[in-house]
Every structure is written in C-alpha cells, then in structure tokens.
Amino acid sequence: MKRLLLAVMFVLSLIAVPAMADSDNYEFDNVYVNGINLDDATVYVERGENVDIYVYFTGTGDTTDVNVKAWIGGYEYDTVQATSGMFDVEEGISYRQKLSLELPADLDAEQEYTLYVEIYDDVDSETYTADLLVSRERHLLSVVDVLTEDVEAGDYTTVTVRLEDMGDNKEEDIKVTVSVPELGIEKSTFLDELTSDEMDNEDEESSEDVSLTFQIPESTETGEYEVVVLVEYNKGYSSLEESTSLSVEGVASEESEPVTVVVEEEEESSTDFSTALRLGFGILAVLIVILALILIVRR
Predict the structure, then answer these.
(1) Which pLDDT score is estimated for 21?
(2) Domain extent at residue 56
(3) Cα–Cα distance, 247 to 151 (Å, whole number)
C-alpha cells in the first residue's frame, strides 16, 4: 500500500510540475558583464548602475520565438530583470544578444548575488548562472521624497526634501536648490554632511531632511506649478534632479472677453427721406417741362 501511494504521488508530481527541459536548439558560448567574461572571475558591479550583459550562443537546431532573459533574485521590492525581443534560431549560426540590467540604488551592498541568464522558447530552455558581487558606488545620493503643501497666493510655503547617502563615501557641503521656474522662485541651502554608514558614528546620519521656505507672489493664478529640486555634491562633480508639483490657490485667470463688432445700419427713415427727395426732384422737372410747353403753345 505504501509503495502504491508513493507511485501515485510521483505521477502526480510529474503532472503538476511540467519542467522545462534543456534545449537541443541552442547552447551558451560566453556571457560577459561590463566586458568581463563570467567564466573567468566573479564580477563586481555597483548598485544603481546599468549593467551591460552580452550573451553569446550557437544554434544547435532550428526553432522560432526565442527570447533571452537575465535576472537576479533576492531583491525585496521588485524583480530585477531584462528580456530581449523575440527572434528565430537556426542550426550552426552564432548569435549575440545584449541586455541592460538596471540595478536598484538600494540593493544590499557587499553581497553576492546569482545572475541567471536563460535562453528559452515555448517548449524548453537553457540556463546559465554566475556570481555577481554588488558594491556601493563611491558617490551616490538619493532623493527619497519631496513634500509640498497647498498654498494661497501671497502666503509662504515650505518644500521639504529628504536625502539619503547610498554611496560608499561621506558627502559634505551638499547644496540643495528648490525652484519654481514659472513663478521665478529659487532658494538654496546647504546640508553639512551625510554618511554612508551610521554604525561608524552614532552622531552621523545617512539620511536627513532639508526644508526651504519661500513666498508665493500675490498675483499668482490658481493652478499646479512644477517644483524642481537640484542636489549638488561631491565638490560639484555629481548632481541629481527631481521634480514634483505645487498647488496654488490664487487669483482667477483673466480670460479675454470676446470683442463684439457692431456694424451700424442706415436708419430706415434716412433711406426713406433720400428716396422721397429724389422723387420730388423728378416731379418738379416734369412740371417745368409741361409749363414750358404751355407757354410755347400760347405764343
């Protein structure tokens, strides 16, 4: 009875999990990350960068609707992957596919990840794995959030910018500029420092808020206005920019009123007078002619 139960469970497992078999239509030749062959060494990459992956393989059979995909696991907030467009493979032909894998800026640093590269079609697949060691970029700040508040024209408002040091170095004299280009507003301030590791010194912080207050002109019309945040650091060699919107309750926008063109028509009475005058002159002329004829006849 026990053997029968095991046999039934084995058959059910085969039905429930249709595994993708290794393909007979293609095989890997080489995989390069940022120009380094993964067969030669573990590759170091920096979080927040775009990693260029070149996949070289050869067709060992003919097949259609093939994709190449690269991904890494272990990131908590999203799937980190890149996929090529669909193409066909012919036997004996060598292929190269380029993928660009964007690494999140908050990926855990100093940790080894497995890179998976898969060639697959609708029937089977071939998978290649290698190790990637993720390190921090030397200089990398991140704008975590930009907070604005609704404001009325003529009043003061505050924009709060939250910054975090995602890099490997401490950043000092960080310049933060907030501007509302459409209203001609620009304000700047400096943040003394942000450290990359709070554990080194409890008095140092890896993230901090910066607030800038400014007045909205009284003549500002009601609407949404773009707020631009510019952060400059690393002695001015590095910068980043973020934007959001600011809602202003102001004066109503002036709409141009339609211009009505009035064409004055001649008064009916004036028209009638002119007609009567012409008729009178005509009758007078006729009477003069008749009078002249009568005088001639009498002579």
Answers:
(1) 46
(2) 17-135
(3) 7
- pLDDT of res. 202: 60
**DSSP, residue by residue, 131-160:** EEEEE--SS-EEEEEEE---EETTSEEEEE
Within this chain, do residues 145 and 105 fall inside the same structural domain, yes or no? no
Neighbouring-strand partners of residue 193: 172
Distance between terminal CA atoms of the chain? Answer: 161
Q: How many CA atoms lie within 13 A of 273 on its CB side?
A: 5
Q: What's the token pair of residue 130?
A: 């290698």
150 and 100 in a common domain: no
Same domain, 147 and 130: no
Q: Can you name the residues that pair with 233 across neighbouring β-strands?
A: 238
Residues of the chain with pLDDT below 50 are 1-21, 256, 266
Q: Does residue 272 lie within any of the structural domains?
A: no
pLDDT digits (tens, 9 = 90+) for 212-228: 999 999 999 999 999 99
Report the CATH number at residue 119.
2.60.40.770
232 lies in the same domain as 147 = yes
pLDDT of residue 158: 95
